[in-house]
Amino acid sequence: MFTSTGSSGLYKAPLSKSLLLVPSALSLLLALLLPHCQKLFAYDLHAVKNDFQIWRLICGRIICLDLKDTFCSSLLIYNFRIFERRYGSRKFASFLLGSWVLSALFDFLLIEAMQYFFGITAASNLPSGFLAPVFALFVPFYCSIPRVQVAQILGPLSITNKTLIYILGLQLFTSGSYIWIVAISGLMSGLCYNSKMFQVHQVLCIPSWMAKFFSWTLEPIFSSSEPTSEARIGMGATLDIQRQQRMELLDRQLMFSQFAQGRRQRQQQGGMINWNRLFPPLRQRQNVNYQGGRQSEPAAPPPLEVSEEQVARLMEMGFSRGDALEALRASNNDLNVATNFLLQH
Predict the structure, then answer these.
(1) Interval 319-329: pLDDT, tens
(2) For residue 28, which of 79, 116, 201, 230 sits 20 to 30 Å off, Cα-Cα?
(3) In three state form, how does the secondary structure of the chain look?
(4) Cα-atom radius of gyration of the chain, to the nearest Å?
(5) Is the overall model pTM greater than 0.70, yes or no?
(6) What is the pLDDT of residue 179?
(7) What is the pLDDT of residues 265-279, one digit of tens each?
């Protein structure tokens, strides 16, 4: 939706789809049909501490009682589905579980710190919902997704492929009086889990048997079909611009298909793949020349030089150097397109 770091839809993201559908449906049900039951899902830490209502740590941290929070968190989960595609549903679920558990601890610590240092005891009911893991996902989003400039405004200020995500997170951050406590605890838990501090990623993780069980039972329900790659009609002002846009779309579709085929061959056979040999860009293909009744082809262009800085940025995201080199060569050193290739295949 906002970023260009993956294809549209929820293909290969069944957990993200379930987090979009189930909590949102329950939030609408509570808000429209069962408003008298909302008190059961209030995130009241004082009731947990004083009355030992431990169940509120679960019920109060799954379903949003505010529809604005439901809408914003759903949009963020949709955009953060790229991590499930990249790491798999089990690792993605482990990150959400770890940040969800750690954030509950940080919520208690922040509430006690506010009461001890500032004497503030009004923060009894924190915003309900699956909000802390959503804020925790901003940590790998900031560290792993490359920043690609889209437009330049007001001199040094620029709009990137990540700007609207941060704006949406800021909107969620300012939607309530004490949601900043949940946001800070979520960011802290995301930092702890992402940096593998105290080996929490090994303790707070989804067991393999549980992952297989849910993969067998729930994944067929929430799985999505692969999106079709139909070319959209060009929106240029002239026919020449529209033709150029269509050519660029054909180029991208060709690179996507050949990239997937090349990676399958590489996994089966090993070694590097010459992408310039497999598919030169569509606009750079030369027509067959006939000179003196004989068919001749132009000499192959020299290999494209790849920016080591861009290779390093892709390697920081967890891709191998070989995959980063081939993706950048295939995309003509376009970091954004290369990231799309690697995230989707």
Answers:
(1) 778 888 888 88
(2) 79
(3) CCCCCCCCCCCCCHHHHHHHHHHHHHHHHHHHCCHHHHHHHCEEHHHHHHCCCCCHHHHCCCCCCCHHHHHHHHHHHHHCHHHHHHHCHHHHHHHHHHHHHHHHHHHHHHHHHHHHHCCCCCCCEECCCCCHHHHHCHHHHHHHCCCCEEEECCCCCEEECCHHHHHHHHHHHCCCCCHHHHHHHHHHHHHHHHCCHHHHHHHCCCCHHHHHHHHHHCHHHHCCCCCCCCCCCCCCCCHHHHHHHHHHHHHHHHHHHHHHHHHHHHHHHCCCCCHHHHCCCHHHCCCCEEECCEEECCCCCCCCCCCHHHHHHHHHCCCCHHHHHHHHHHCCCCHHHHHHHHHHC
(4) 24
(5) no
(6) 92
(7) 665 655 444 444 444
Q: Which domains does the chain have, with CATH numbers?
A: 14-224 (1.20.1540), 306-344 (1.10.8.10)
More confident residue, 300 or 178: 178
Quick check: 304 pLDDT over 70? no
Measured CA to CA in angstroms, residue 52 lies from 48, 55, 88, 105 at distances of 5, 9, 36, 15
pLDDT score at 330 = 78
In this structure, the strands spanning 294-296 and 289-291 are antiparallel
